[in-house]
Amino acid sequence: MLDATERRWDVEGYEHIDAARLETFPYEYPGSDAVVEVSTDEFTAVCPWSGLPDFGRLIIRYVPREHVLELKSFKYYIHSFRNVGIYQEHAANRILQDLVGAAKPAWMELELVYNVRGGVHTTVRARWPQG
After folding, report:
1. Least packed by Cβ within 10 Å: which of 33, 52, 87, 100?
2. Where along the chain do its domains lie?
3. Which runs of consecutive H residues, i.e. helices, occur in the chain?
4. Which of 25, 32, 110, 23 is nearest to 65 (CA)?
5. Which CATH number fits domain 4-128: 3.40.1260.10, 1.20.58.100, 3.30.1130.10, 3.10.450.50?
6. What's the angle, vertex CA 76, arms to CA 70 and CA 81, rounded to 5?
7. pTM reported for the whole predicted model
8. pLDDT digits over 22-41, tens only?
9. For residue 22, which of 92, 101, 119, 121 has the smallest C-alpha distance?
């Protein structure tokens, strides 16, 4: 019988993260300071070391300039992380990088609140631009 330290599930690499799926649509109120908040409890990826799943709540806030994130494409993008081996801290930064690249907002902040795993609770916050 295998002991727990010998058990590992295969994980996918970063190339399975599908940022090309992100779409936007024109924002009719450029210059407005309206903050858009998008959240989901359905974020999941896997630990690159063990292959065990990580589940979390993802909250994104941003002020659009000329484009708004299209939500169906956002959902498909988030689901592309499903079997990707990525550390929690890296996932938050990668998501922020991809969303900023797609929407080109005035600013964006992201909070990724992971469920407790192994008795440890992790929350990662990232902001663009930094400062």
Report:
1. 33
2. 4-128
3. 71-79, 88-103
4. 32
5. 3.30.1130.10
6. 130
7. 0.91
8. 999 999 999 999 999 999 99
9. 101
86 with 99: CB under 8 angstroms?
no
CA distances (Å), origin 118, targets 8, 39, 73: 16, 25, 32
- The pLDDT confidence band at residue 121, using thresholds 50, 70 and 90, is very high
Positions annotated as catalytic residues are 47, 54
DSSP 62: E
Helix axes 88-103, 71-79, angle to 10 degrees: 150
Instruction: Determine phi and psi for 114, rounding to 5 degrees.
Output: -85, 150
The tokens for 119 are: 């008795």
Q: Which of 123, 126, 71 is nearest to 102 (CA)?
A: 71
Instruction: Between 49 and 62, name the one with better pLDDT.
Output: 62
